[in-house]
Design goal:
The chain is an alpha+beta fold. 14% of the residues lie in helices and 24% in strands. The strands form two sheets. It has a three-stranded antiparallel β-sheet with strand order 1-2-3. 13% of the residues are buried. The C terminus is likely disordered.
Amino acid sequence: MILHIIEAVVCGPYSLELTFDDGTYKRVNVFPLLEGPIFEPLREPSYFARRVLDPVAGTVVWPNEADFAPEALYELEPEEETPNRIHARPAAATANR
């Protein structure tokens, strides 16, 4: 199965709230993946916040073209969520069930 990210929200210096097209929602910290020159700019929180969702590739991308495979993000251990935010599964993720 090929995974795609359908929503990505920056929720901390290195954290993303992600919704995948299989309905999975998780909040992950990508700091452990920020190795190598392409990811160096992402260590700056203001640059990290400049992510966009590439609907064709189905993943998050930054202005310097750094990105992560959706599968790599899917495999990360989830962070604990803040209790004041309630998440509903997107209609697009549930429409095919």
